[in-house]
Design goal:
Elements (H helix, E strand, L loop, with lengths): L9 E5 L8 H9 L5 H14 L1 E6 L2 E6 L5 E6 L5 E5 L2 H6 L1 E7 L7 E7 L1 H8 L1
Antiparallel strand pairs: 1-2, 2-3, 3-4, 5-6, 6-7
Helix pairs in contact: 1-2
Length: about 130
């Protein structure tokens, strides 16, 4: 469960999905299961997906990375200047997209690839 301050409400919380993010890669990995390489690919992909989490509360945006060692970035919603959403054709078909969050300067503070419902993230942070 996510750590929140008293009175803080979680408005969005998600890990990048495996199938919706790369359906062709997922199907190919499943087809390679009889050769055993498919299981390795799926396990690495699953752990990579679990290692990233985006949380938006009514006060801040949090992005966490890592399983054993963790990296956590927090940005106050009031200081977010803009949010860019990029979606390929497959990402649009499956409802995922890449997010860039800008608060100050010309480079993004947070970049998250393959998040579900990216336009909702943009609405919640803007």
């Amino acid at each position: 469960m996510a750590e929140t301050a008293p009175g803080e409400t979680i408005r969005y919380e998600a890990h990048p999905p495996m199938f919706r993010n790369n359906p062709l890669g997922f199907v190919l990995s499943v087809l390679l299961i009889p050769v055993a390489i498919g299981i390795v690919i799926l396990m690495v992909w699953y752990l990579s997906s679990l290692a990233r989490k985006l949380t938006i509360t009514d006060r801040e945006l949090r992005f966490e990375q890592g399983l054993l060692s963790k990296s956590r970035m927090e940005i106050c919603l009031a200081s977010i200047r803009s949010v860019h959403v990029r979606q390929s054709l497959f990402q649009r078909m499956f409802g995922t997209g890449d997010i860039e969050v800008f608060s100050a300067g010309d480079s993004p503070e947070v970049t998250v690839k393959g998040m579900p419902d990216p336009n909702r993230i943009r609405e919640l942070t803007g």
